[in-house]
Amino acid sequence: MTVQSTPHLDALQRDGFVVVRSLLSPEEVTQFRAVSTKATTLTRAGHWPHFRTVPKQFPPWPTTPPPASEGGIWGVQHLLHPEMPGRAEFARFYFSEKVLAVAEELLGVKRTEGGEEALVMELFNLLVAPETKDFKLRWHRDDIPETAGPEEELKLLESKSPQGKQSHAQYNLALCPDASLIVVPGSHRRVRTEAERNADPYEPDMPNQLVVELQPGDAVFYDSNILHRGVYRGKPEGGEETRLTLHGSIGLKGMSGNEADKKVRATAVLQHGVGAWVHRDDAAFGVGERAEKMRANLVAMGTGEGVGYSLQG
């Protein structure tokens, strides 16, 4: 019997993140950088209504982008929305076999011919540089509140990754050189230390922290409950885009039969508003049957009305 090699999964389980070098070719980087620049330019000009705004870290975000003098936007939301310019190109990346193959390894999916689709379409956004000023995110875990005590924190960590198994694969794919993500390796499997718990929310030198450095075409897949933060360098107003990072997540269907766990994942995904449009008649992607099955798995999660928000701020 052949034992399947899982180097990406081994690194993720050990460190809480894994860097996949050159996931995109230089030619693909050029193509996706062009369509991402167009989407960012439209959003900065107020022609795309879904974005992340400075100085807010978590949803809900304002409906009007702040002026560049206040930092403007730091993200473009809903790249797979039917009305997003360049949507076909973004879908070509999100549903590409090279991305899904890594997700399958990390999620323990073994595909069979004609079998049920195990992956779920989740989120696909773009992280960009704020204008005129730097912007920093505080230390956090995506699905665990900072106010959780040690016992609750351990319980939540174990329930979200039982036996080390993830419910989703989350990644950043850099189209420009990117050193924005800072992590504490190994923190995805343990409660915070006293130093981490008592640290300033924006502590610049957390013990054992590591800056994840990506070159164009590189991706980092990471456990969303690793202790992490973001540091985003501002760019000159109207200047060339200095950060274009595709930020996506791919879910695993039916990982847990626990209704409370299902609600937590539904909140994490649907709080961003994807449920409001994914069921539309014009939301089909035209990039293959698998994409439509993954979309159907997301539609089955609901519209997102009343799910609330994972974190505040």
Automatic annotation (TrEMBL):
The residues forming a coiled coil are none
Q: Which InterPro entries match?
A: Phytyl_CoA_dOase-like
- Name of the protein in question: Phytanoyl-CoA dioxygenase family protein
